[in-house]
């Protein structure tokens, strides 16, 4: 995890030392193209960022469509066959360039073109949809998540075709417009679209690094489950003078119920919560450093790193252990002054990050049953499970797609590529991976300091350039291997 500094990497013995390969000639030539056409591609990037493609707010529906149209036109100029797959909200862009033919493998790349809302607007130092370059960083909503990462994919493909005439393998793109809403539209499409989605390799380009100078491939992301809890104790709010001491206050009941979810050691106390959780193997542990400088973490975040299971390291808790967090709680009167009532209702929002073998629906039911079991007599409990839940994903370090991208990362950065995990979630990934049937890799060039989902989101121009080079080199390396499945696009 990188906040301003990175955890120390494991030291390697002499026999483990990786010799860094000089940058291949093809990348050196592409670097020249990047430098020569910097003004043009930066302008294209700014245009992409200028669309207020906020998927969750209905007033931006036309902007969402305009952004999708811009991507479609960009890809058509690269001889991609492009389709819009309609959903109830915003379309999925599916594009394919199969000029490499059936003797070459197929890589599918996933991105999304929708972005988060910009509130609070008054905290932005510049217009979130008028990209601004400051000290090598481009500031705009979506600069990193995920338009920046999507753009370096598109630009890499363009430069490769400009340089070589055609792509070295078959490429499919799945760029959705509802990721920030939970990907419900794409999820509903997958069963009917399995044939065109079939690919040998699947690259999810929506993740990041622990440090801007150290390349990394992500071996796993956690699953997610979100829910809202409502407790009710009376038909309406009651006067605290007339009824206080007689009735059960729903807020008291709710906080007591929530406190029962963990013990003093940070363990989650919901019966059955850990039943299917497996420990990491020694081989998996040997691939990743779980060291985090806790003093640096506290200095940067202002938060003492004492949450979660006390018998686990901080990065274990953040990366590979399940969590249950309270995201919000409210009830009663919270305005200025006082209104001495006992509220009729109280509410809380909860989320879980899940690990392999934990089923979101099963865990949700366990939590609901526990809350109803511990609720005081007379308190009604209602639990609403939100859409957008997803399972955890793990990736094999031995998969060919991981090896090829790791090599590309190493060649571009000039230092060995490390393996990391990511504690966050991308709910659509397990479903998409199953529909595509190919080997999966999780990657990206984001940093925790990019302020995604917050005011003043930004992304470095240097990382855009590195992203272009990594994608270009990875497709060259993957093209050296035979396809695993017949080529299909319909």
From TrEMBL:
Please provide the record's keywords in A-Z order.
Hydrolase, Metal-binding, Protease
Domain of life, source organism: Bacteria
Q: Which GO terms describe its molecular function?
A: aminoacylase activity; metal ion binding; peptidase activity
Supply the enzyme class, top level: hydrolase
GO terms, biological process: proteolysis
Occurrences of domain Peptidase M20 dimerisation (ranges): 220-378
**EC number(s)?**
3.5.1.14
Q: Which Pfam family is an annotated match for this chain, by its short name?
A: Peptidase_M20
Q: What is this protein called?
A: Putative peptidase
Q: Which organism is it from?
A: Candidatus Protochlamydia naegleriophila
